[in-house]
Amino acid sequence: MGKPLLEVQNLKTYFHTENGTGKAVDGISFDIDQKKTLGVVGESGCGKSVTAMSVMGLIPQPPGKIESGSILFHSKDGAKELTALPPKGKEYRKIRGNEIAMIFQEPMTSLNPVYTIGYQISEAIILHQNLSKSDAKLKSVEMLRAVGIPLPERRVKEFPFQLSGGMRQRAMIAMALSCRPSLLIADEPTTALDVTIQAQVLKLMNKLKEDFETSVLFITHDMGVIAEMADDIVIMYLGKIVESGPVSELFRNPKHPYTVGLLQSIPSITDKKKDKLQTIEGNVPSPFNIPPGCGFAPRCSRKMDICSQESPVLKLSDNNHKTSCWLYS
């Protein structure tokens, strides 16, 4: 197998405020292989979106800062260490939106309300592919047609408020894929959509991934979505990776109590009406006030004395399955 498209090693992204230092991402490592999808799962506040923003070079500075670590991206021009590039510099701008593109959670806040859909898609095409305005407009129509938007010649002239939520998300996907990026980052792209539209968008993304031969970093809190979308999975909790591995292996044999809790909290059509839905007690602690030892210990039903004293490390068990838990150390 060749080199991974993206290699993240011991990444630490902190936020320095008057209230202290928040360790949003605290020493995570993962790879994304060519033409594969890596799913990143965890509750809100676990560091998923900050991981994506770190890769995109969009961490607000200050208060945010990539403290240490490596983000190695194998671009079309060779390997690039993204942490060494100025986030607002010319070289990073050449990569961002061109070779690495991102779909955000809420398209209504991500799309500019005062510009037409066609103008916003064309802007990226003109910037990165040096096409004329007329050619960029034709490419915009082509991309809207590719994502299944009816009457694309008319839709390019419309504003975001004139489109439904599902159409706006499709337009965001069209914009992200317009420059045929090597890596697509999707940050909970179906959260604001109803179940039927969500299924359509996920099916569309899988198809476009194959058509465009794109690798995907797919961020979500929904284990069911990951089962359908990803090849490999990373479970994040409080800025750290607590478990990772191939999707089939991790779903078959979940090890970390947090992963088990996430899987048990998924409603099943076979559950009886009287059955109580499993939950994980408590909330994710603040990254400004991380408990000693294992971050999940205060919520864990299987914790031991050592769990509140020392932090476990991520260890390989079998089938490329890694777990960070004292139960398996």
Question: What's the quick description here?
Answer:
The protein has 329 residues and is of the alpha/beta class. The chain has helices at 48-56, 90-95, 107-110, 117-129, 133-146, 152-155, 165-177, 195-212, 223-229, 247-252, 257-264; strands spanning 6-17, 20-32, 37-41, 64-75, 78-81, 100-103, 183-187, 215-220, 232-237, 240-246, 315-318, 321-323.
Task: Provide key terms for this protein.
alpha/beta, globular
Question: What can you tell me about this protein's structure?
Answer:
31% of the residues lie in helices and 25% in strands. The relative contact order is 0.15. The model has no long low-confidence stretch (mean pLDDT 87). The chain has helices at residues 48-56, 90-95, 107-110, 117-129, 133-146, 152-155, 165-177, 195-212, 223-229, 247-252, 257-264; strands at residues 6-17, 20-32, 37-41, 64-75, 78-81, 100-103, 183-187, 215-220, 232-237, 240-246, 315-318, 321-323. α8 (195-212) links the parallel β7 and β8 (215-220). The longest helix has 18 residues, at 195-212.
Strand order of the largest sheet: 6-7-8-3-9-10-12-11
Indicate the proportion of strand residues: 15-25%
Helix content: 25-40%
Query: Strand pairing plus helix content: what structural class?
Result: alpha/beta
Order of helices and strands: EEEHEEHEHHHHHEHEHEEHHEE
Q: Overall mean pLDDT score? A: 87
The 3D shape can be described as globular
Low-confidence stretches: none
* Beginning-to-end CA distance, first to last residue: 30 Å
For the secondary structure, the number of strands is: 12
Rounded radius of gyration (Å): 21 Å
Number of helices: 11
Describe the biggest sheet?
A: 8 strands, mixed
